[in-house]
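Can anyone check this?
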Amino acid sequence: MKHEPIRLGLTSCDALIASGQINVITNAGDLFVEMKPLRGESDPISLTHTELAELIDSGQFSVQYGYFESRQVARRAIAGRALLSRVSTTAQLDAFWKECWSTTVLELEAEGQFNRSADRWNEFLPELERRVTEKLKLGLKAATAGACFDSIELRRTPCRTSVMAWVRQWEVSKDPMVFVKKSVFNGSNARRIDAEREAIIQATLETYLHPNELLAGHIHHDVNAEIRRRNSFRIASGDLPLGEVSKSTIERRISELDKFEVLAARKGLAVAKNKLGAHGGGLKLAAPLNRIEMDEWEIDLIAILKKSGFDISRNSVRDLETGRYWVCVAFDTASRSILGLKLSNSPTAEDAKAVLWMAMRDKTELSRQLGCETAWKQHGHICHVAVDNGPAFVNAEFKAALSDLCIDYSVLPAGVPKLRGHVERVFGSIATLLMPYLTGRTHSNPQKRGNYPSQKYAVHTAESIIELLVRFTVDVYHNRKHRRLEYATPNIVWDRLIKEFGWSPSMSNHTLRHILGVAMSRDTGRHGVLVNGVNYHSDRLAKHFQKFGKQHADVRIDPEDMGHISVWLERGKDSGWSTLKAQIDGLAGVSFAAWERSVFELRQSNRNAASLTQGVVDRAIKRIKEIDAEQCALRQLGPIGETYAQIKRAQKETFWGLSLGADPQLDIAPLDDDLSGGQGLLSNEIHIDPDPRPEDQPVLRVTHHEPIAFWPSSDDDDEQFNDADTTNEETDNDNNA
């Protein structure tokens, strides 16, 4: 199909805008449109209507219709009537005074009582003054209700030349803005700088956009120095020299620069984002656990970076290493509640995972052990986690754990803390409400710290800081009125939101251990898996070992519960995470710290004995639970970065050669009557007395236990033995929920 040729309906009153430059249409014929720049001496260019239409469609050109018509010219000249309210009151009164004189002259002229002859001006002036004064009185009375203006002080009567100039201006636009000086918008000097000097100014302004933060005076000096340099050549060539520019000109050019660009170049992008970025007030979420913000903060407190167990009043404590701990916090934005916190020497992915784990655990017992008067009940399954670009949060392990836990994850831009304003404000609350009570604080900056000797006054340890943070969180912060919660407390709002939206329980403890537990590796065998001196076994592992033999498997440990561990079975239909139960009783709910101390004390008290029996272990664990409950709670909140190294050290020292719990596939060999045959404290297997006391009966586990709920995605379709000999063995089916 043949297209008809395009002809644009343009006239000489229209303008074409290209790259911000105004072009005048000098001729619009049937075939071509000729145009030239409004300013400058460039030659005209001609384009066909089709070419110009394509340029307009592509956005390179735009049309301003009627740009040069008298009405639009007048409107641009007077900056628009709507801007009259933007000028000062003095300028407004002056404009309306001139308008009053102009309209009165036109009224008298229409009545035949005035003509524009200069000879009769004095004849018409008295009546003109009387009418202007009357109009001003009526206007003031209308503007000021109840006021009486019997006499009014008038400005001096203008001369005929001024009045007639005002009348001619008024007749053109009928707009009082015509009487407002244009300099109120552009400055008294407006743009009186030629192109060469303007180019010098713009080139020098680039040095203003620099972290050195040059002042306007520096730019002014550099511009004039360049002008003087060029003038030396101009004078030599016989040209007129360029005039130097004023400092106010440089200041105006600086004020016209992009504020964000200036701040970003001089102060940094983060400062520009915080100062000039839009503030939306944060996300307003109503459901609890819907959005969790996580962040780290270096505590404003100098502490002793050593474990407890020494007298801090001794002079030797001054030789110990001191420094500042970091705390990682998980914060619920809906209820303004702290879900978890962890103390560490430096931020790591393990800390972030530990805080995530704590946020999904019930911490009521923990708060009770630390002496809190209210319960730390805030926990459950998290829907979304928002973090910054910290190394602990962008770590692949942390992101993989969130993915396995079905938790959404977002990394917010760096340098914009207001996007995580809720958790950032928590740190501010700790700094202002808790830190002033503590000795050895560093304050927020050296200026505020002054001459305070923080290093000298370092008295707090990790244990004391943990207790302070927990007591502050549970008994102070969660019970303080919050302005953003309509002056309700986080505890009250949490209970109300749980009733309104329901509560999302976290995944099972076994699943959390699979994903968030402390990682290590062990060999599987007939005894099961030996970890920390305890054998862990299950029916599922026994069948896997029978089929595939010994394997080097990944193991996950919960430092707060020695009752179970997780092991990854690599091959066959049983592949995936499987939960193994400790083969001695009483370890459920016992922390690694309590178990390590229990075994250490047992070995100290039984150094000359040849065996450890179940009764001794039971009594020791019971005693440790009673005397070490507070330390267990502290361990749960303490530096998680030490957990793996602590377990490795304990295995080499405390648990060396220890193997508690019977192998369900081995027969117990009779004991040799000779107790001196190499059986001692560090033997590989601790034998059992053939005639023990009833309470010291050795472990021979053949009793049936209830099935344990395991990770459903990895332990499906676990077959059951039909053999009568295995009917009473422990079942290990993860789908038995």
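Reply from J.R.: I decoded it. The first strand starts at residue 15 and ends at 18.
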